[in-house]
Amino acid sequence: MEIKNRPGAGKSAVGHPTDPINQTAQTERAGRPPMTMTQKILAAHAGLDYVKPGQFIEANLDVVLANDITGPVAIGEFEKMGKKRVFDRTKVVLVPDHFTPNKDIKAAEQAKALRDFARAQKIIHYFEVGNMGIEHALLPEQGLVTAGDVVIGADSHTCTYGALGAFATGVGSTDMAAGMAAGNAWFKVPAAIRFELTGKPGKWVSGKDIILHIIGKIGVDGALYKSMEFAGEGLANLSMDDRFAMANMAIEAGAKNGIFPADEKTRAYMRSHRSKTMEKQPRIYTADADAVYDETIVVDLAKIKPTVAFPHLPDNTKPIGKAGSVKIDQAVIGSCTNGRLEDMAIAAKILKGRRIADGVRCIIIPGTQQIYLECVKLGYAETFVKSGAVFSTPTCGPCLGGHMGVLAAGEKAVSTTNRNFVGRMGHADSEVYLASPAVAAASAVTGKLTDPEKLFALKKGPIKTYLNRRGEQNGKSV
User: Fold this and answer.
1) pTM score, whole prediction
2) At what angle do helices 70-80 and 105-121 cross, to 10 degrees?
3) Which SS3 state, helix, strand or coil, does residue 211 take?
4) Residue ranges of domains in the chain, CATH in brackets
5) What is the percent of the chain with per-residue pLDDT over 90, rounded to a whole number?
6) Which residues sit opposite 150 in a β-bridge?
7) What dihedral do alpha carbons 182, 184, 186, 187 form, nearest 10°?
8) Cα gap 432→426, rounded to integer Å
9) What is the H or E stretch that residue 433 is in?
10) pLDDT tens-digit profile of 441-465?
């Protein structure tokens, strides 16, 4: 990664509009200062010609989101305000996903508070168990967020929706309550860092590896209250699932938001994920060619290797080749970062015909019911079960040490989740290593942090030959 202090570097190209989703929403430039993508979106939602970093504005909201942890608190604050109705029952989204299916009585009461409020307010976008998903995988899939939106969510990883060219950021439950009541929120306009992506990722390198690499270079406060704006010719080599993973973890660098320009891949995604319950008009913004950034960071995707974040911070990263021999007790593949279909496909490719190592628990959690169904149709679910893994209904579960895989003292887990703080997945004396689905799946097979390429290199003949090298046959010690 090369860091250059180049204000106003580079352009983000947008193709000519050919259908409503391709319509741009550029503001007239005459007489106004240059702006970044984020600044243009905020200016439009504040009814201003332009905004500048550090300026306080009040912006209209397109989506207000809460889950079963933050929602009950927001509902309590909403009621204290004396409000009778939310500002727009189509724009408030409630998703019980953290402790559901309910793990205990307290979780059941939290989910019930969300359910009762949704019924009383006639909230259209309330997603119950059996029809739900992990919120940041579910909303894009349902077409509830689109390019140019301003979204707040009472969850720090709301920044995920920046992959669609939206301004999306996490807020506290009190701000969530105010947003539900008024339909607007106060923001301090963030300065921006431009990440110029070049080259093409190598084999087994995904968006998770890229964002871990970036966080490892700039640190967990490297983009503090700034917009991480991704650009460059390397974007064309990233799938939408790569982009969702990268935008999701912008908060782990301290960023206010992460955002990608809406290119043809974005438009194709939006065309295939249109909401059936609310009118969404994409508004595609691009940064001005002379937009001012605090710095420009050039990232050569071709040089990035599969990457692991060691305990206890997401910036404590090492390429898998330098990870050493770290034995694991558990592997988790899923979460709002890596529970999408591409992630499931990668895990299935690695686990097919293999067995999870003795003494390792492998938990695989698809992001939504639709992804779960696709895993069944494509045979991934069968692969997971035959490998000895657990295949779960969608839930945040172990990511926050909630349920479905809490760690005991001294245990180590490799996980595709987004945080590895002390006690994040259970006991304060446990350890979490963040990695991609490829690394997590390969590690589940060997019982230690493993480069997936080395796993495939070991398998020269029939699967039993590989297992015999480990002293196993048909998944049992011999």
Assistant:
1) 0.88
2) 50
3) helix
4) 63-186 (3.30.499.10), 307-471 (3.30.499.10)
5) 78
6) 167
7) 160
8) 10
9) strand 431-434
10) 999 999 999 999 998 887 533 343 3
CA atoms of 324 and 44, how far apart (whole Å): 50
Is 133 within 8 Å of 374 (Cβ atoms)? Answer: no
- Write the Ramachandran bin of 276: left for phi over 0, alpha for psi from -120 to 50, otherwise beta: alpha
- Which residues face 385 on adjacent strands? none
* Cα–Cα distance measured from residue 344 to residue 270, given in angstroms and rounded to the nearest whole number: 21
**CB environment 432-451: b (16+ within 10 A), e (fewer):** bbbbbbbbbbbbbbbbbbbb
Residue 205 sits at the vertex; the CA angle it makes with 199 and 207, to the nearest 5 degrees, is: 85
Q: How many CB atoms lie within 10 A of CB 318?
A: 17
Under 8 Å CB-to-CB from 325, ≥6 apart: which residues? 448, 449
The end-to-end CA distance of the chain, in Å, is 47
Contacts of 279 (CB under 8 A, 6+ apart): none
The C-alpha atoms of residue 359 and residue 471 are separated, in whole angstroms, by 14
> What is the DSSP track for 39-98?
HHHHHHHHT-S---TT-EEEEE-SEEEEETTHHHHHHHHHHHTT--S-S-TTTEEEE--S
Residue 6: is its pLDDT beyond 50? no
DSSP 234: G
